[in-house]
Amino acid sequence: MDQDLTGLLHAWRAGDEASRDRLLAQVYDALRGMAAARLGRGRNSHTLQPTAVVNEALLRLLGNDTDWEDRAHFFALAALKMRAVLVDHARARAAEKRGGDVAMLTLSHADREAGGDVEIDVLALHQALEHLAERDERAARGLEMAYFGGMERKDIACVLGVSVPTVERDLRFARAWLNQQLA
């Protein structure tokens, strides 16, 4: 499937619209699952639905002239676009409510690691990731791909051009740093 997605990405970039449609059909459910995991389960007041996150992220992604290298790079960029959608939505809600009812995000990857159901303020997470990027850009990018994209360590390693153990070290550092910042 990885090679098939990579082939579809390259065919689409070469102008084959049918490849784009087949690609979107194959990745849509995976992207929607990522968005659903990040939006959490416990907040009925959350106005942004997984389908809306994916649709907006895909619109932003389709308007981009990035030359995909492979499936991992595509999902990394999709994670970045989903983060942008969530942050933009949280900012709009905060402005609309004058700071009240800030959107919360469940980091399911972090939930699996920590064994709990953790909800994080999207804007606080965004700011913390920006501060982390100033200190360690690679760790911030890896954390973004893991949390927002639900990507596996081997895929993150491929995108970042490092080994899996390096990704694991970066993620341990980034999680500890993020926990300290958000505490």
From TrEMBL:
<dbReference type="InterPro" id="IPR013324">
    <property type="entry name" value="RNA_pol_sigma_r3/r4-like"/>
</dbReference>
<feature type="domain" description="RNA polymerase sigma-70 ECF-like HTH">
    <location>
        <begin position="3"/>
        <end position="182"/>
    </location>
</feature>
<keyword id="KW-0731">Sigma factor</keyword>
<keyword id="KW-0805">Transcription regulation</keyword>
<comment type="similarity">
    <text>Belongs to the sigma-70 factor family. ECF subfamily.</text>
</comment>
<dbReference type="InterPro" id="IPR036388">
    <property type="entry name" value="WH-like_DNA-bd_sf"/>
</dbReference>
<dbReference type="InterPro" id="IPR011517">
    <property type="entry name" value="RNA_pol_sigma70_ECF-like"/>
</dbReference>
<dbReference type="Pfam" id="PF07638">
    <property type="entry name" value="Sigma70_ECF"/>
</dbReference>
<protein>
    <submittedName>
        <fullName>ECF-type sigma factor</fullName>
    </submittedName>
</protein>
<dbReference type="InterPro" id="IPR039425">
    <property type="entry name" value="RNA_pol_sigma-70-like"/>
</dbReference>
<dbReference type="InterPro" id="IPR013325">
    <property type="entry name" value="RNA_pol_sigma_r2"/>
</dbReference>
<dbReference type="InterPro" id="IPR053812">
    <property type="entry name" value="HTH_Sigma70_ECF-like"/>
</dbReference>
<dbReference type="InterPro" id="IPR014284">
    <property type="entry name" value="RNA_pol_sigma-70_dom"/>
</dbReference>
<keyword id="KW-0804">Transcription</keyword>
